[in-house]
Amino acid sequence: MKARSLTKAYDSEPPVEVLRGVNLDVERGERVAIVGPSGAGKSTLLNILGLLDEPSGGSLEILGSATHTASPARRDKLRSELLGFVFQDAHVLGHRTVAENIELKLAIRGVPRRQRFGLIAAILARVGLNHRSRSLGRLLSGGEKQRLAIARALVTTPGVLLADEPTGNLDDSNAGTVLELFDEAAKRGVAVLVITHDSRIADWADSSYLLIDGVLSTRK
Ligand SMILES: Nc1ncnc2c1ncn2[C@@H]1O[C@H](COP(=O)(O)OP(=O)(O)OP(=O)(O)O)[C@@H](O)[C@H]1O
What we know:
Elements (H helix, E strand, L loop, with lengths): L1 E9 L5 E10 L5 E5 L6 H8 L7 E6 L2 E2 L5 H11 E4 L11 H11 L4 H14 L15 H13 L5 E5 L7 H16 L3 E6 L2 H6 L2 E6 L2 E4 L2
Helix pairs in contact: 3-4, 3-5, 4-5
Bound molecules: adenosine-5'-triphosphate (ATP).
């Protein structure tokens, strides 16, 4: 993923410049962390990198595909084929079971029905949720929802994984498991980008950056 001179401004009163010329490279197999104080523009940047929002200026390439010149339909296709998301509100479907939440993802990716059960069981075991596979999404705790979101993002292999505070609701043991899953994904060639307040994640990453007032600088 290659971002060049990304800017984002809102014409609100007063006008807000949220991102000021962000340059960022995340290679396949690399683990990158971005830390920054509240209001620095982290979620805005993640939404732009995830093709959920458009920048005011600059360019963004995802695994060699230019996105800033792409049509909305092409952006949707790139998002669903190349990106995996672990976002804070988790987007878990409350009226579907844990297993169904994951199966939907496999169905969208065209994984044949007979292969799905094994993949779902394996990833739920990894995040410690196999005993909840028949529970409805809305009955899960915050941390369980977060682990389900991680299972759903990693049951297939995305080109880029974008995670917003993925360990925010988790105890140390579950947070450790999440980082192990991210390590394994990186070893499979996934570009892993984590936005966090947790300096331990920044230490774990191969490269880390600081975002302050919309300006990104190298930390490590
Ligand atoms: N639609 C909007 N109109 C005007 N300002 C906005 C809009 N959306 C976000 N902002 C402002 O942009 C700034 C950055 O917001 P953002 O949510 O990206 O920060 P953040 O670093 O993720 O913060 P936190 O860690 O608290 O979630 C904030 O000052 C916010 O008020």
